[in-house]
Every structure is written in structure tokens, then in C-alpha cells.
Amino acid sequence: MTGVFFAFFGLLPFLNLCFVRLLFLVLMAYCGVGAVYAQHVGRGVTSPSNLEYISQQLEKGKGNKLAVGARGSALLVPYWTRGSVLTANGPVGPVWLKYDLGSAQLLWRRPAGDSLELNTAQVTEFTMGDSLRGTRATFRRYPLARIESPALRTAFFEVCYDAGKSALLRQRTKIIVSSSGGPSLTEGRLPSWQESLQYFVKRTDNRVMPVRLTEKAVLENLGPAHQSELAGHVKRERLNLRKPEDVARFLAYYDTL
Prior knowledge:
By secondary structure, the protein is of the alpha+beta class. Helix content is 32%, strand content 29%. β2 and β3 form a beta hairpin. The radius of gyration is 32 Å and the shape is globular.
């Protein structure tokens, strides 16, 4: 019996070592599970919400690989702004909106906090305000107008003036250009988003025509009628038809003739 006790106590160091190793393995497994769980929970807490994810993707160019890292943003306004939407079924608003000029996509932030890309095929007009600059822009479709370019027949135009028989419209788009100014990324330098503007006049015959903002181009665009009277009005009022706001004032007078 004494021999058995001595044999048992002789095995204690070995048993203690095995127990310690077993305990160590159990603790490691537990910590591993805890770490995986914590990582899973952490992803649920810190991963971007649907709203944040869509905002990030928009600022990168909506998934466009060429846009990743580009300076600036494809958005008209880089933050959510209050606005209203007019659809084929009636008005919606006020709502929080973002408008991507790179892809002509309109986003709406719902009260629940998530975001939806609006089906712009059903949208006829929307208005956005920039609270920081104190400005407001209205974008409108003209499906019944006579527009030569097929791509522009369903496009949104920013309305500079449309209060009578004529209208001054602006097409706003953004593209990625290289630092040299061309739409190429082969130089290896950081590209940037740049905005492009094109102006159009909607005439009294419902034709939408591109126009350069010069006195000669605007007068010619309106046709031969009332040319002398219109030129005289420009001179009397000292209008600068290179400025959209002066062209809007000029068209307001033209609508009275």
C-alpha cells in the first residue's frame, strides 16, 4: 500500500503538467470562441449602415473603379438636403435627397434611416436645397418637348427660368478627369471629379435647343422675329447674356412680346 502511495505521489508532477496543458487548451479554445463572437458583434456594431454604405459608394462614383480615390464627389451636394419630388402619381415631400451627377441617380433617405434609389422613370421633377449656401435647385424633365438628342429626351434639366412660353435650362454632369485635364487615368496622378455645364433654350415652338451664352447666340436661337426690339432691350437694360441670371431676365421680357 505504501508503494502505491509513493507511486501516486511520484506521478503528481506529470499529472499536474497534463492538467495545466489541458486547462490551457480549454482556455485558448474559449478565448478563441470569445474573440470570434466579439469580432462578429463588433462587425454588427461598427459596420456601416445601409445609408452610410450608399453614401460612401456614391462618393466613390457608385462602384466605378476609376472613381476610387478621385478628388471631389460626383454628388450635386455631398450631404443630405431637404427637397421634394414630383412623380407621375403626385408629389412626395419634403424628403432628404442626394443627386449623383455622374450617373443621374437620385437617392432618398427614408424616415427609418435607410436609403432607396428612386426610380427616376416615374419622377418628373425634384427640388433640392443647399442649406449651407442658401440655394435651391429644381430639376425637371421635358418629355413633350422637341429635343434632337435622344439621350436628353428623358434627362433632367436644371431650371434657370421657366415662367412663360420660353425657358432657360442647364444640363449638369460630372466626369472623372486626369490632372492634365483629359478624361484619362493613364498618367498615374490623382484624378478628380469635374462638373460640365451645357445650356439650352426652350423656344415658344417647344423646341429645346443648345445655346452658348453670348448675346449673338441667344438672339439667333430665338429666331428672326423681334430681333431689333430684343437687341434694344439688351442694350437698355445693360444685360450681360453671358450670365444665366441675365438671360433669364431677358427671356422673361421675350415672353411678353
